Each structure stands twice: as structure tokens, then as C-alpha cells.
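look at this fold:
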Amino acid sequence: MSASLRHARLVAEREAVAAVVPVDPGYAYGRAEDRVRRLSGQLNDLNRAEGWGVWKGTPVGQAAIDWQAAVRERDGSLAQANDVGWREAHGLRKRSRAAAERVGPLRERFDALAAPERARLDAELPEAKKLLAELEGRYYGNLHFQIKHPEALRRLDHLDNQIATVGYELDLQRQGLDGVPAQPAPVHQPHPGLERAPGLERTIEPDFGLGL
């Protein structure tokens, strides 16, 4: 059998085996997890008016910081006034009243800036969670397949090695026809194939029956 025909048959066989192996969505699954975590953190901090976390350095984050600072000054000054002398208490109560006058406008400013961000997150987060749930099902489905059918993945690795070897032979034949001196064959490394789940080591000799 010619090298070209062997190569074509090996490629066709690999495609047939790969067709029954679920695609590993590991990378997309990880990105979806990160997205849900990021959006959830943004919404949680927004609901708590926390400006020092993920919103730090943004207009809405600064508005939250200003509002919370006014609330703390209002409440703190009033509490301190109960433990000091009359004259100092008078100044603290005056300071508390001034802070209280700022609380309302500062909260309104925060609410105005937070409203569009909250609307965006309320729309994006459910969609992100839905995608994560879909990818999670595919991820664990792929993991279950790898555990139940390790022979299919070994078969893919073996076919990848064969295809690479025959492909190199074909290149040498082309070089001979073109009058280009053939180069020494490189040390062939196994094809990485599909992503493997952690802990699935290849310690069993190749078994070329799928047994699916």
C-alpha cells in the first residue's frame, strides 16, 4: 500500500474515532466559571454599596465610598457625643447633622450611577449562569467518557502517531522527487490529542478496540 493511501486511511479512521469522543470543553468551562464569578462579585458589591472592591476607581465605586463615608461620619459623631463633655458633644452633634445632610444627595448620586450597572448585571448574570450549566454538563460528560472508555483516547493517540510518521515519509518522498536531500528523521513526540482530565494516566498498553 502506498504511503499516500495509508495516510488517507489513517486520517479517515481517526475522524471516525474522534466522532464518538465528546469534545472536551475544559477551557470554555473555566472561562465561563470566571465570568460568573466576576459578574456575581460586581453585583454583590453593588448591592452592598461597596466601593473599595471590584468597583474601586470607577464613578460608581467612588459614589459608594462618598456615601458610606458620610453615613459613618453621621453615626460615628453622634455616638461619640454621648461619651464626651458638653462643649465637645455640641460640636460632634453639629458635625453629625452636617453629615446627615450629605447622606441623602450622596445616596441619590450612587443610586443613579448604580442603576444602569445593576440592570446590565441582572441581564448578563442569568445568561452567564445558563452557559456555565451547559458547559458543566458537557465537561463532566467528557470526563465520564474518558474514565469509561480510555481505549478510545489511547486509540486516538496511536493514530496521531501513525499519521505523523506516514506524513513524514510522504515528505521524504517529495524531497527525493524534488532533488532535495532528505533530512534526518526527528525524534517523534506523541501527539497531545484531546485535553485529559487530571489523574488519567496512560499506563495501559494500547487496546485498539473501542468497545463503545
Notes: Residues 74 and 97 are 7 Å apart (CA to CA). Residues 86-148 form the longest helix (63 residues).
